[in-house]
Design a protein that fits this description.
2 strands, 3 helices, 46% helix, two-stranded antiparallel sheet, elongated, mainly alpha
Length: 71
C-alpha cells in the first residue's frame, strides 16, 4: 500500500489496522482492494492512494486440493 499524504500523515500501524478491518469482512479479493483504498481515502484524505494485495484462496490452503481425501 502506498499513499501520498495530504495534510495528515498516517503511520504504518494505522494502515495495517485499516487493512485488517477490511479483511475481516466476507468479500472478494477485488472488493477488498477497493475497500482498503476507499477507507484510506476517507480516513486520511491523501493526495493519492494505491493498494496492492497478495492474497491466497482459503480453499486452496486449508483443504489441500489435489490430495486424495480433500473435499
Amino acid at each position: 500500500q502506498a499513499y501520498m499524504p495530504g495534510n495528515a500523515l498516517a503511520g504504518i500501524g494505522a494502515i495495517a489496522r485499516l487493512a485488517a478491518v477490511c479483511a475481516a469482512r466476507l468479500t472478494t479479493q477485488e472488493a477488498l482492494t477497493d475497500d482498503i483504498a476507499a477507507m484510506m481515502q476517507q480516513a486520511f484524505a491523501p493526495r493519492g492512494v494505491a493498494v496492492l494485495t497478495r492474497l491466497r484462496h482459503g480453499c486452496m490452503t486449508l483443504r489441500a486440493p489435489g490430495q486424495k481425501d480433500s473435499t
